[in-house]
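fold-stage: in
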Amino acid sequence: MEGSEMSAEVHFAQKLASNEKKIRDRAIKRLRKYLFARANHGGLSENDMIKIWKGLHYCMWMQDKPLLQEELSGKIASLLHSFPSPEGALLFMQVFLETEAREWNGIDKLRLDKFMMMIREMFHQVFSLLSESEWQVSECKLLAQALALKVMSPWEARLPDGLKLHIADIYVDELSKVSLYKMSSRKMMLLLQPFISFIISSPKPELAKRVMSEVIVKMLNTVSTVKPQPAAKSKQASRGEDREDTADSETEQDIGSKEESMDIDGSSEESSENSHSFVVKLIFYF
């Protein structure tokens, strides 16, 4: 059984990287159903996803028309919604980041734009996924960990600076497009943690300065202009978040001891309160 499963991923990778568009399109369509079916019957391992993402990377590589590239970016990113659980989708996102970090330096200038577009669309869709589940702390943490380990680690020389900069450039833009005003300051800080850690620890001051400008400063400017809107929340969602806050106390330790005395539990009813808390918290951090 295991052998047939392994061959399925290899088969998809080959079809996704085909020279013929019809074959690639058919493979994308079938892959969506396959991901859903596998996720409901034991799930996909990280190794399985590595094979699939290799094929998806070269599926984009083979697409040479701008409008079709945009369409393909949307189709690939929408695969995140094929998983019945956020955990499966976030592992899929993690392997995507790992794949692009590995392949980045091999992308020529003529093909770079379409991969940058795909990365932007992937972040938009993963933020949409988190928004649909009301920004659960455990899920925000999984994304932050994936980003920190696979792209933003300051100590891994093999991780390309160009990829770091592109993600820094688009991160806040895509986050704000989804639903920034519904997030507590704690969750904003959690999603920024990979960049904060990079800025503090990076041996490359110019790169750290660019990340600071594109992520931290941009986020401060963005939250200061968010219009106040009621953050309606069901009692059930509130209870779920309370359980996460209790069970996930190490999150505050990850962010740092500076803001422990300023913990925000995400219960504010107005986005203006969230924005103010976030600005104070982030300024205090630095």
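fold-stage: in (second)
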Amino acid sequence: MKWQEIAPHVSWVFAFAIAWIALYLAMFIKFGGIVGLHTYSFKATAYLQGACMMGLLWFGFWGWLYYLAIGWGILACLEEIVIVLLLPEAKTDVKGLWWVLRGANR
């Protein structure tokens, strides 16, 4: 029953997966491994995707929450790709692009 609700919108999950894979490729190419950036945007992504899953299980498919969660996740991946490209060396807990640009994490 749930799959029929989600199936028409699954292309957004693939878009998120592509962004996520691109992020990890950028990390491996630049730093030779995975770096735990721990940005606020990715933490928000986890909460949004969790809320989306709980809403799906309890109430059914909510399109607005689904697109918000997936869209936010894609933006978080893009933010981390930019951060990886800007950082001269691997760094953890960078908070976000704003903090990297103003030099708080260098």
